[in-house]
From TrEMBL:
Keyword Magnesium tagged: no
Cofactor section: a divalent metal cation
Family: Belongs to the NAD kinase family.
Biological role stated in the UniProt entry: Involved in the regulation of the intracellular balance of NAD and NADP, and is a key enzyme in the biosynthesis of NADP. Catalyzes specifically the phosphorylation on 2'-hydroxyl of the adenosine moiety of NAD to yield NADP.
SUPFAM superfamilies attached to this UniProt entry: NAD kinase/diacylglycerol kinase-like (SSF111331)
UniProt name for this protein: NAD kinase
GO cellular component: cytoplasm
Biological classification of the source: Bacteria, Bacillati, Bacillota, Bacilli, Bacillales
Pfam entry (one): NAD_kinase
Length: 267
């Protein structure tokens, strides 16, 4: 078993990283940053996003495991005091592989067409203020958006930026994408649907901005600045991310713990 490890870089995550390497060496696991079977992230969801983007070209063959060090840790299901158990299971047990949908974003400009994969979401904002962009669903005009921006999220990204915008939380076994608005302008002159929209896997949406408008394009935690964008095609990717589960994990427990708390209040 070859593994790669990324940590958040803070003292606790670095210390846990060192511990992991020693425990793994004792169990005969081999560190390999180039072509690992398993990618571990120690930190939070932000660290797992970085790990995903570092290994996205190998996403069809690697599996991911997250250890969280105190933050939200939606993708990280192991606690800091469970490293020895985790290493033992990695060395001895075949994990259950759980696959989550990813987003594919194709950005078409005058000179190029570039494809990106996102684990959480794709975000579009204007550099200069109000974003004006047409939204087409399955090649039919749907609405003309005016406002602060648009977030297209994956099911597992639905608990991230999307949730802060009032979007629905979607179970990652549902293959689809969600379009959420950031502060759309709605009045007698300008009108958008105003609620988030969930598309199934066989649908796609295109965002058509003014090519003269400079844009901020967010792919998870990464932000690029672009001009000359003619259209952005968003769909559920063919590829999926694989998580190695060495013990049961319940998505809805994670949602409750992260957003409601684990109090025992009864109705
Ligand atoms: P960050 O601004 O340092 O952290 C954003 C927060 O979002 C962290 O608490 C992070 O958890 C959490 N998070 C990330 N992915 C999540 C998910 N799938 N479900 C629930 N929470 C999640 O940025 P970052 O650490 O580089 O993460 C980038 C992500 O931040 C983006 O993909 C976006 O989803 C989110 N974001 C949210 C808002 C908002 O809610 N207004 C605005 C911008 C970006 P950890 O603490 O465990 O890392």
């Amino acid at each position: 078993m070859k593994y790669a490890l990324l940590d958040r870089g803070d003292p606790l995550s670095r210390e846990l990283s060192e511990q992991f390497h020693s425990l793994a060496a004792a169990k005969g696991l081999t560190p390999d940053d180039t072509s690992p079977d398993l990618v571990l992230s120690i930190g939070g969801d932000g660290t797992l996003l970085q790990a995903f983007h570092r290994y996205r070209d190998q996403v069809k063959r690697v599996a991911f495991v997250g250890v969280h060090t105190g933050h939200l840790g939606f993708y990280a299901d192991w606690q800091k005091n469970e490293l020895a158990e985790l290493v033992e299971l990695i060395a001895t047990k075949e994990p259950r592989e759980v696959k989550y949908p990813l987003l594919q974003i194709e950005i078409i400009s005058d000179t190029s067409a570039t494809s990106y994969l996102a684990l959480n979401e794709f975000t579009l904002k204007s550099v200069d203020g109000t974003l004006v962009a047409g939204i087409n669903i399955n090649d039919e005009p749907f609405e003309m958006f005016r406002g602060d921006g648009i977030v297209i999220s994956s099911p597992s990204g639905s608990t991230g930026y999307n949730k802060s915008l009032g979007g629905a939380v979607i179970h990652p076994s549902i293959e689809g994408l969600q379009i959420a608005e950031i502060a759309s302008i709605n009045n007698r002159v300008y009108r958008t649907l105003g609620s988030s929209v969930i598309l199934p896997k066989h649908h796609h949406c295109d965002i058509v901005p003014d090519p003269e408008e400079p844009l901020f394009v967010g792919i998870d935690h990464l932000v690029l600045q672009m001009t000359g964008v003619r259209s952005i095609i968003c769909r559920v990717a063919q590829e999926k991310i694989t998580f190695a589960r060495y013990r049961p994990y319940t998505f809805w427990n994670r949602v409750r713990e992260a957003f409601i708390g684990s109090g025992t209040d009864k109705v």
